[in-house]
Amino acid sequence: MKPPVAGFIVRALAFLIDKSLFCLLALIGLWMAWSQAGGLAPAFGKNLFWWLFFVAFFFVPLWWLYLSLTSANLGTTLGKLAAGLRVVDAKGKNISFGLALFRYAVGYTVSWLVFGAGFLWIIIDPKNRSWHDQFTGTRVVGRPRPWRAVATLALLVFFEVFLFVSLVKSIVGNQDFIRQLIEIYQDSVKLIENA
Predict the structure, then answer these.
(1) Other CB atoms closer than 10 Å to residue 67's CB: what's the count?
(2) DSSP state at residue 3
(3) Which helix (H) or strand (E) holds 140?
(4) Would residue 70 count as lying in a domain?
(5) Mind listing the pLDDT tens digit of every residue in the chain (195 residues)?
(6) Which of 154, 114, 124, 121 is nearest to 135 (CA)?
(7) What is this structure's pTM?
(8) Domains of the chain: total
(9) Is residue 2 part of a domain?
(10) For residue 22, what are the domain limits?
(11) Is residue 3 part of a domain?
């Protein structure tokens, strides 16, 4: 007997878990940028620039690589694993790396076009397939565990909020850093006025 095809809600939860993992990595990177600056505004500005550069140019390819490698090697992403789901081909087998890369890099991009209509298609498709499932001949199957997915997502969001609040407190609580920022701002205003 074939495992049931997963519906929209549990797939959305799995997707949010995977996205939250990447947000957590981004926050850890931001923490590292702050920590390595040693409370110096110019050093943090430089580190922040490189962090933003990395996020802007490397996070999307890393996202596709993560999804493709986990789907090809494990048959699932960490988010789908928490939700009890797997990505399979038409024969019910794990998909290849090439197919996974096409599914995520091209298929997800197309599914996001027109305000995410390709993802919402899962709701109206009788076989719960998204556009990227239809392009690649894949299915998302399994024994959905929505409560486990919700608990995993809640835990990740808790850590993200904790890290973010701790970072903001650390920055705002550093009076020397705030003073340096004010001095940098005043110096740049003087430069603009004298130009």
Answers:
(1) 23
(2) P
(3) strand 139-142
(4) yes
(5) 677 889 999 999 999 999 999 999 999 999 999 999 998 999 999 999 999 999 999 999 999 999 999 999 999 999 999 999 999 999 999 999 999 999 999 999 999 998 999 999 999 999 999 999 999 999 999 999 999 999 999 999 999 999 999 999 999 999 999 999 999 999 899 889 887
(6) 121
(7) 0.90
(8) 1
(9) no
(10) 8-194
(11) no
